[in-house]
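User: For a benchmark we're assembling, each entry needs the component sequences followed by a predicted structure for the full assembly. Here are entry 17's components. Please fill in the structure.
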Amino acid sequence: MKQIALIFCILFLATSCEIQYDGETKMVVTGKLIDLIGNSLPEKDIEITVEGGDLLLSPADDLISYGKSDQNGNFTYIFPAPKGDNRIYISINDINNQPNEFQSKTYIAAENNFENYKLDLNKITLYKKESITTLRLILNQTSTKKHLTDIKIEGKQPNSFVYLDPLPNNSDYLVDFYDVIKNQTVVLKYTVIDYSNTPTPTTNSVSIPIANDEVTYTITY
Amino acid sequence: MKYSILLILFCLNLSFGQEKKTKTSLILKPEFSFYAIVPNNFGDNYLAKANKPRIGIGANYNFIQVQHFKLGMGYDYISYSITDISKAGNIGSSRYNSIYGLLGYEIKLSNKFNLQPYLGFGSVKLNFKSGNRSFGHQTGNDFRIGGNLNYKLDKTVSAFFGLGYVSSNYDVKTAPEFVSFYDNSKMLQINIGIKIN
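Assistant: Structure for entry 17:
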């Protein structure tokens, strides 16, 4: 009987949880969509979602606003502020089942990214999908006493996900796959720490030309 | 001494007379009004630009009459459907609620018609809802001025037609350039209803 009551309680909590809003506080998200050469991108989909949370009984996400960029590529959306510290996702040109010439892009923001209740994303460059290729890294460890950390790519990248409120820095988590724009030279930076004696970090910088096809680069350490 | 007594009696008579006059001018006279509101919001503000009003409802209760002046209170409710998501959010409706005090003045035009201009001041709450789901509210205050033309149907029931102007101010926190859009509303009301006294 207690178990049944518990299940009912959990179900009730799961269905009754909702994100709470402060109607007197209006958040503003604004920006302008352009392409690689600075042309405005009109009629692109914008969706703003308030995240309920990651836990099992967290409220469902709310699509709090949506629309399209105007003829000049500009957009401004105003909506009531969530009462909690919920993350806000601004998805741009994220459409499925339709031909989509340009990449999609998502900004993930927190309340502290809003200045005076406004988040100005300024000019947002959307690259054509055909102008994007990939840089794949092969991590070739030659000694167990050497540790690879802080991999960074400098160059034009589509940045499909932008965390405006950075996640806790986890330099041990290595990403070995990057979207990059074609026909450029990117700079790969990484640090190798040698634990043979006193830990000694060595920062490396490598220029990698990117043409039309996928590029694979091996980091040997 | 004789003159003094006469003077006191005269003063008593005067003050008694004033008391009688006061009693006759202050009347507890309850009047109920129920009416439909046809709202027309205007200006560069949230209710006018991002919402479409539906027919609202209202009720007044006048309880004190001093000569031709009437004192009472009222409540208005108007539901708006949201037309501009970019300015309101993905929310179904805005719901305007106002509770106010009223001071009216009755002008008799004929045996059947009378005109009642009024002034009012009250508290306003704008609820944001999708069905039963709440997306918060804004509070503030409102000022109203207008007049009703009453037509006496019988001894206790009158029909009326009224025009009113309601100016509301709301509390808001947002980017400075948008404050003036969300912190006020302006409305012309056409009110049609009945009054029972």
